[in-house]
Write a structure and sequence with these properties.
By secondary structure, this protein is α/β, with parallel strands linked by helices. The chain has 16 helices and ten strands. Helix 3 runs parallel beside helix 4 and helix 4 crosses helix 6. This is Putative DNA modification/repair radical SAM protein.
């Protein structure tokens, strides 16, 4: 590793970081460098390669400090027994590389994770040192997201929160049984303990900021986590309930889902095939239903197949739930409460808020609904308007083919 130059290290460690999905840069406080000698901002945009949840196109330098690791998790390409080329950055190299990329307008911020070398405490020290160099020596005010290590000393993890905009601690797998089988050296109890400590530290930091304006910001973008989907036998229902529990107990900003991808020289305990990428997409849609549409985890899980526990891949979870509970529909858009309007397939949060505002002044017709959604065909069987009642559609046994999106073959060279 000592013979590699920075460019070779970057090639290895940027590629090794691609399996981590939790690198959006939204949710932090606005911070700039105008009128000072500092460098960076959390508001600007560089050359963009990804979209944050708030819609901004962003780009982060996404790297590992090292892809060497003392753990031997079966699903990880960087595990101890994996035959991959290893590399390691120093904390100084990470800081200098981030500044060089930022000054060239290539990136907006840094996402830094790492394999475990020597010990959890030593690795966490190096991660914190890289962030410290950026903040204190180079006065970098751009976005920093640090992956913290659950087994590290809690004081080191708290230091990470002083320098980072967001911190994350991966729960790795949805179930305790899956973690024990595929990552026996990791402890679910320690992972959740670290997440609990981080939540308390964030709450304490927020309280201090309310009391004292001079109090330092502590992880203003909160904490997130990531689960690997498809490496174990967890069903979509298991994953949805686990995600809901994590949101409630640790006040997470996001739970990210990463579809298991087969790796070179895989362990014999891993599945031979990757799960459909569409499964990951359906789980993100389910996550959205719980966070913004007031669905309970049991309601989302009820949309899954009763036999397999898996969400359908051909339709979204909201439509699957509506088709399964036809007795709740149709909903009168001129009289129904907000929570029921949010359950109408094809109506988003903005459309529902617009309906509530408009109906204070007049009754809505189907043409009004069509102006608020791109999918009025999907809505029609599930709602009642001033001039519309789904008499013929409401009781049809073959409703699903009528409202499900039509499968189309994409063209490689379509205009």
């Amino acid at each position: 590793m000592a013979q590699l130059d920075v460019q070779q290290k970057l090639s290895i460690l940027a590629d090794a970081a691609k399996y981590d999905a939790s690198c959006a840069s939204s949710g932090t406080s606005k911070r700039g460098s105008a009128g000072s000698k500092a460098i960076g901002s959390t508001e600007g945009m560089g050359i963009c390669h990804a979209y944050a949840p708030d819609g901004r196109c962003i780009s982060l330098l996404k790297i590992l400090l090292t892809n060497s690791c003392i753990f031997d998790c079966h699903y990880c390409i960087n595990r101890r027994s994996s035959n991959v080329r290893r590399a390691r950055f120093t904390a100084r190299e990470v800081a200098d590389l981030t500044m060089a990329f930022y000054k060239r307008n290539y990136i907006e911020g840094l996402f830094l994770s790492s394999g475990i070398i020597r010990s959890s405490d030593y690795t966490m020290e190096q991660i914190v040192e890289a962030a410290r160099l950026l903040r204190e020596e180079q006065d970098f005010r751009g976005y920093i997201h640090l992956k913290t290590i659950p087994d590290a000393d809690p004081d080191l993890v708290r230091q990470a929160g002083l320098y980072a905009d967001r911190v994350s601690i991966n729960v790795e797998l949805p179930t305790a049984g899956g973690l024990k089988r595929l990552a026996p050296e990791k402890s679910g109890t320690r992972i959740e303990g670290a997440m609990r400590d981080m939540r308390h530290a964030i709450d304490d930091g927020d309280d201090a900021r309310r009391r004292y304006r001079s109090a330092p910001r502590f992880a203003p973008a909160g904490q997130s986590t990531q689960m690997i989907v498809g490496a174990d036998a967890a069903t979509d229902g298991d994953i949805v309930r686990r995600a809901s529990a994590l949101y409630g107990r640790f006040n997470l900003r996001r739970v990210y889902y990463s579809a298991f991808s087969p790796i070179p020289q895989p362990s014999v305990v891993l599945p031979l095939r990757r799960p459909p990428l569409l499964r990951e997409h359906r789980l993100y849609q389910s996550d959205w239903l719980m966070r913004f549409y007031a669905y309970s985890p049991d309601e989302v899980a009820a949309a899954a197949d009763a036999r397999t526990g898996m969400l359908p891949l051909d339709i979204d979870p909201k439509l699957a739930w509506a088709l399964k509970f036809r007795d709740r529909f149709p909903v009168d858009v001129n009289r129904a409460p907000r929570e029921m309007l949010l359950r109408v397939p094809g109506l988003g949060v903005k459309a529902v808020d617009a309906i509530l505002a408009i109906r204070r002044w007049r009754r809505l017709r189907l043409a009004d609904i069509a102006r608020l959604t791109v999918s009025v065909k999907k809505c029609r069987p599930f709602l009642i308007a001033e001039d519309w009642r789904p008499v013929a559609l409401a009781d049809r046994a073959d409703l699903r083919p009528l409202v499900a999106p039509r499968a189309e073959q994409l063209e490689l060279f379509a205009a």
